Amino acid sequence: MARFTCLLLLLVLSGCMLPTGKLASPDFLKETTARGQALKIAEISVKTGNIAAAIDVYQKILEKDPTDTDTLYKLGALYLQAGAAIEAIEIFERLEQETPEDSKVLMGLGRANLFLYRPAIAALYFEKSIDLDADHVAALSGFGISSDMAGRHAMARSLYLQALLLTPKDIGLKNNFALSFLMEGDYETAITHLNEIAFGDDATAVIRQNLAMAYGLKGDREAASRISGLDLDPATVENNLRYYELLRRIDDKDSIRRLLLGPRTPYAPQLEEVS
Predict the structure, then answer these.
(1) CB neighbourhood size of 188 (10 A)
(2) How far apart are the C-alpha atoms of 90 and 84, rounded to whole Å?
(3) What backbone phi and psi angles, to 5 degrees, belong to 198?
(4) Rounded to whole angstroms, what are the CA distances from 111 to 81, 115, 176, 241?
(5) pTM for the structure as a whole
(6) Which CA distances in Å does 26 have to 19, 32, 37, 88, 182?
(7) In the 8-state DSSP scheme, what is residue 9?
(8) Of 56, 129, 209, 216, which is the most exposed, with the fewest CB atoms less than 10 Å away?
(9) Per-residue pLDDT tens for 57-69?
(10) Under DSSP, is residue 147 helix (H, G, I), strand (E, B) or coil?
(11) Distance between CA 137 and CA 144 in Å, rounded?
């Protein structure tokens, strides 16, 4: 009840305020309405998976007003969502020049550079975000992923644990913590941690496939096949098992890191991005 009263008070006060400048022109009101409608169209396009249409809408809005930083950020985020990391970086770098301490922009640059497998550059942006907010969970997670990407697994796990102290139920962070052991070659520990999260109510197919990979790299083909088959068809399961066996024989940790940390595909073993 108190909340409603406060809201009502604000509405009454704002209604009593007199304009201090010129009234908005009809053209301005028309443009403002058109922009709002365009943004709604873009939002609907994103929800229905038509990323290209949404990008086109944002670009047209920016043609009319290149200083619209809110729309510019949305365009950069959409490019990143579409996997166009180079284009996203160009936009986020423009925004960074105007607002160098905007955590959203820094996170965009960090994530885009992770997508391009540039761990050192990505880490710089995540560190800047952490400098602005030591409790920034997504920045701690991103810094952890960039550390895993660079092969600094102990440091990565330390960062994941810092983030888990803030959000102890975050299954994505728990997944990343477990996979850090896998990338280091400690399959038993990775399996132990993945088993704790792979079959709960909030478990995902991705986490189960991570567990299947851990068993496959350990050499337990039967367990890898059983768990992989929970989400994948038999032909895909067999292909994955052969690939895990190849990775196990060549013992190529860099290839494993790239499989886990590279561009995402459905059901591929991978780290979870924390939002």
Answers:
(1) 9
(2) 10
(3) -80, -15
(4) 10, 6, 15, 30
(5) 0.80
(6) 16, 10, 16, 35, 62
(7) H
(8) 56
(9) 888 889 888 999 9
(10) helix
(11) 10
